[in-house]
Specification:
Length: 124
């Protein structure tokens, strides 16, 4: 026996078709669960990837903070007397650290795209 979403109204009511709340919930529940579950999973994957991107940016900033401190120490002469040779060696060292940090950042960001695709395909 099949039940209809519309409930037959009694002869005393003006409307001939009235929704029963329970029938309405059953009518919308299954499609809603199927779509919202998938959408929620995709949104969760997107948020995890966004979280990874923020974490990588924070790691980059944490790597760069000591580099800026070293620049300040070099410019103020805390590492010894200021000579052109000491400034040059300090800048070369700092440039190397900044380059390495930037390459690590670029590598991590490029991996995020592949991780995101893999997470979505695993979910599908």
């Amino acid at each position: 026996m099949t039940t209809s979403v519309f409930q037959k109204a009694s002869p005393n009511t003006a409307n001939t078709n009235v929704f029963n709340n329970n029938d309405l919930l059953v009518f919308w529940y299954q499609p809603w669960v199927e779509t919202s579950s998938s959408a929620a999973k995709l949104q969760c994957i997107w948020l995890e990837t966004l979280n990874d991107a923020f974490r990588h940016e924070i790691d980059f900033l944490a790597t760069m903070a000591p580099v800026y401190s070293k620049i300040t120490h070099c410019m103020l002469g805390f590492n010894g007397p200021l000579t052109p040779e000491s400034m040059t060696s300090c800048y070369h060292q700092i440039a190397g650290e900044m380059t390495e940090a930037t390459f690590n950042r670029i590598r991590r960001v490029s991996e995020l795209n592949e991780d995101f695709k893999e997470r979505i395909w695993c979910e599908l």
